[in-house]
Write a structure and sequence with these properties.
Helix content is about 60%, strand content about 5%. By secondary structure, it is mainly alpha-helical. A hairpin with a 6-residue loop joins strand 1 and strand 2. The chain is rod-shaped. Bound molecules: zinc ion (ZN).
């Protein structure tokens, strides 16, 4: 999911809250903003993990499992892997 999409949703939500109850809901806006930041953080973390994994791992051409790039033998199917 693109980050701008999240931003649009966040903006719409905050506007909706502000317009539906102007006076007392600063706390609510704050809560929603925190929630959005949390979601954003989780999304970002997932992306980083994927990047990290693909930097060190490669797919075995025999069994299609993820193995270390430096591996000479696949740990799943024990085939010799080309480097
Ligand atoms: Zn394999």
């Amino acid at each position: 999911m693109a980050r701008w999409f999240l931003g649009v949703i966040a903006g719409a939500l905050i506007l909706a809250i502000i317009f539906s109850a102007p006076a007392q809901n600063v706390m609510m806006v704050w809560l929603v903003m925190n929630l959005i930041m949390l979601i954003d953080m989780i999304l970002l973390q997932g992306k980083n993990r994927k990047k990290f994994q693909s930097a060190k791992m490669t797919q075995c051409s025999f069994c299609a499992e993820l193995i270390q790039k430096q591996a000479k033998i696949c740990k799943h199917c024990k085939e010799a892997v080309a480097q």
